[in-house]
Design a protein that fits this description.
This is DUF7869 domain-containing protein. Keywords: Membrane, Transmembrane, Transmembrane helix. This protein has 492 residues and is α/β, with parallel strands linked by helices. It has 12 helices and 11 strands. It has 2 domains: 301 residues, no CATH class; 86 residues, no CATH class. The protein is 46% helix and 12% strand. Helix 7 runs antiparallel to helix 8 and helix 11 runs antiparallel to helix 12.
Amino acid sequence: MRLLFRWSAINEQMFLTNFFVIFVRMERRYYYQKRDASRTQQETYLSLIIDGMDQAKTSLPHFAGRQTKSISNVDLLKTHLTGVINHGNGGFHSYVDFNQFPHDPNLTINILLRALKKSADKQMNFLPPVLYLQFDNCCRENKNHCVLAFAELLVSLNIFKEIHISFLMVGHTHEDVDVQFSLISRTLKTKDCETIESLMTVCNGEHMHTVYDVKNWILPNANKFKLITTPLHYKFQKKDGTINVCYKGLNSQDWILLDGHFLNKLPIGKPHIVIRDFSKISVEKSVKQIETIKNLFNEHSNYEYWTDFYQNLNRNAIEDTPWILPLLPRQSSQIPASPIVHVPETVQAAMEKELRIPVVTNQASKTTRQKKKKPIQRKPNNQKRRKVRVFMVQKTMTIPIVDERKRHFLWNIFLSVLELFILTFFQIFVLVLSVLLNMMCYWILMKYIYVLIAEVIFTHLGRSLAYRHVEQMQFSMLICFDFIGKSHLLGK
């Protein structure tokens, strides 16, 4: 009984694990579908993924293959790299800071605005009506009221007509942006980055000099909701002048309309600039570290670069970076960026022929109509003339579209259950085989002992007097073997 309970618990755990893996794959496939849609239909969809890189791999200055014991990673300049992939036409781009700004919704929203402005500039001041955003499942930076309210603000300002925000399941959030981080880490193993500009070249990045305080600007005008970290998908859609906010857990589920809005009213003006805080950087220790490793620099100017950097760290003036939100194009005033293509007449005629609407008519009706033109001779029995009508028949065919994900969903569950059944059967077979082998070993041992004792009895008592003792010993041996076998099975 105990054995059966243990096996049932193991099978249940394996079944739940396989079932969870199926849902993780479905979520990833949903993300890949949105990514592919932005690549094939750039005038309709825009897909962005935003995530941060491990800070331990981008400390400056960086010397590839020349690390000495005098270098202390604690005293090097820690940099934080945030990567953005525009799946349509922007590619990979990164934004670097020195931890002078808190890693909160302000950093995420400012990076999102810069990515949108970069995409609009590449498409001649044009943004598609639908935006797909893929974030890391982190409530501190991404999955919070501030980011969701800002997404609703983008729809309210008519910058987008529809925005989808998606998060992968916890523990399974690594995606294509992490592949770019891996390539950067691999490049740093063979290439020196002795200055900040050299790191920008390796990671195709730009420095975040200014961050606007969007959090304190938008939250006073936002509503509070509970359990916003539970759903994996949010949708903000503008329909008939009103904004509908929907959410759902898995992508296979139906959208649920939110009772209310994240944004109560539009904020006024523009947010203030976040004050930079360099307290996390120990200037004295960093300068001493640079002095210790000055012989490792390929050029002496790089040593002077870091000396001036730490001396003027708190004196650098804040760059006048404009507030990007008013500069983004609206949907009503956008002009598609696709060029005008002159189609040849032969191609135009072929297209018109293919796009011509087919008309299906009844052939019998046409022949009857032709016969109608002949003079009709009335019969003497006063038979009424039959009226002939010609109908133009046009048929509409509805082709059902099968959702590949839902069609293969039950098949995947069946395969997982079949795999679980085969694994369980194989484990039970191995268990039974081991029990039989143990019983065979016990039988051989008892038989050996029986032969040994019989020879001893035959030697001392003689064969004529020993048969009675041998029969009693065989009967006792069988009882003992039966008891040992049953006790072994109960122990298993």
